[in-house]
Amino acid sequence: MMRTTINLDDELLASAKKVAAETGRTLTDVFEDALRESLARRRQARERSRITLPTFRGRGLQPGVDLDDAVALLDLMEGR
Question: pTM for this one?
Answer without folding.
Answer: 0.54
